[in-house]
Amino acid sequence: MFIVKKKIHGNDYFYLRKSKRINGKVKSIDLGYLGKTKEEADKKLKERLKKESVQEIKMEKKILEPTKINVEEMAIFCKKKGFIYQSGEIYGGFAGFWDFGHLGVELNNNLKSEWWNFHVFKRKDIVGIDGSIITHPQVWKASGHVDSFNDVFVVCKKCKKPGKADRYELGKVKCECGGEYDEKTAKDFELMFKIKVGESGDAYLRPETAQLIFANFKFVQENARMKLPFGIAQIGKSFRNEIAPRDFLFRSREFEQMEIEYFIEPGQKCPYEIPDEEILIYSSEAQINNQESVKMKIRGALKKGIIKKDWHAYWLATEFSWFKNLGANPDNFRIRQHMDNEKSHYATDTWDLEYKFPFGWKELEGIADRGDFDLSQHQKFSKKDLSIFNEETKKKVLPHVICEPSLGVGRALLVFMFDSYYDDKERGNVVLKLSPKLAPIKAAIFPIVKRPEFEKIAEEILDDLSEEWNVIYDKSGSIGRRYARNDEVGTPFCITIDEESLKKKDVTVRDRDTTKQVRVKIVELKNILRELINKKLKFEDAGNLIK
Ligand code: GAP
Q1: Can you name the residues that pair with 126 across neighbouring β-strands?
Q2: Is 411 close to ligand 1, i.e. is its CB under 6 Å away?
Q3: How far is the CA of 258 from the centre of ligand 1 (A)?
Q4: Each residue of 330-367: pLDDT tens digit?
Q5: Which positions ≥6 away from 396 have C-beta within 8 Å?
Q6: CA gap 402, 503 in Å, rounded
Q7: What is the reported pTM?
Q8: What's CA 106's distance to the chain center, in Å?
């Protein structure tokens, strides 16, 4: 754009012009009148540019930001597309239990394997276990669950539905419907599911995976020859008889947890660099003083003493970075310290990584400092020495769990679904922009039309790629319809075999998020796809870009 001066009847008039190529010729077109003096024209142009750039940013933001939907809409979407169904739905559904469909199971598995790769494979200081769901009932006595893993059952005065509260919340929290809870109905409600094992008596379905780590702590330490500081990780099912399961996967009765117990010698410093992450921080002090959370560097919060221990800062930043690197929107996260009255019976300090769910800021992952509570308890109840020998100090030590990052798989899954759900009005369909690493289907392979020579190549590519990933073959409907179907379930790449493929032995690969397409040689396809999935290659550099 440029300013031109025109003389009309001896007077100066300033206009905004622009050069444009029309039918191969460069022409200049008027964009509008700017005023009678150069100063006036400059000022108007400046205002116009500012307005346009604001509009552009707004447009970009509109495209870049996921569409806000509520949790019921997300549940409907998940059911419609084959991710998640209410368990026993053909019998009216069973509250608090969910079944994963053909896409849900893939997404769930990918999520868990990403967590395991990051927390176990890539680290030398953490090993994994897989404990049983039902274990010796004494484990739950020692852990304190039998005596104190309760919620308070209350009934709403207005809607008469049962609700749950913590003791300290009585009289303060209200029911979803806005009604007050009737304090006369308040009674302790045991959250563990009691079951019968053989003839011998009562046992429990585990309410957390953590205790299996403590109960096996000594064996794992010895067999894996772990030296402090070290962690033990586990992924598995947990069960809680929630009084009021709600908000889809957020609060269910059967769910999966991904947990780490991180053990240190008491007082041992964190040897790792704290990831340089910035996040909203909400200390217990700020909550007591009715202040807002403040965005700051986690390292800065440690320096200022807001976060007391280096280990806590390290694990909070590490966990946040895991979500960010898998495509979650960092603006939807904050860390919040537990107030004294909400800490669990075992915790000395707890920070939650919270996420801004459509139903408010809620706990996504708890990161508690459990001290030596659990190992001391199991030592006391089992009468076994659980302390370990420190080769360096030549002393026996009962390690402390300095941090317990504990994350629900279902809650993490919701985060990635909400942050990747785009209702693209221009395309006329939802685009689920899941990280390719999480996407249930990595690639969809299409013959452009149903012709045996195209279908043969498509099937060969399918065989080759399916050795490594979940890929699909789709030949029904128009190509546009097939793209839309795959956009909606988050398939990052669509591969089309067309006339040129026969001659040049190449295919088109389409990028879900930008709809850009490149041509890639079939022999290079698998390597290129691997690099694209692992974000080691920019899509534009993956092949010849189709203009
Ligand atoms: N071992 C510690 C522990 O279990 P928690 O705060 O009770 O701590 C840890 O649970 C995480 O497990 C939570 O942050 C949440 O992600 C998940 N979680 C807990 N209860 C859940 C439920 N009823 N439904 C789904 N996820 C749940």
Answers
A1: 231
A2: yes
A3: 9
A4: 999 999 999 988 887 777 899 999 999 999 999 999 99
A5: 387, 388, 389, 390
A6: 62
A7: 0.88
A8: 15
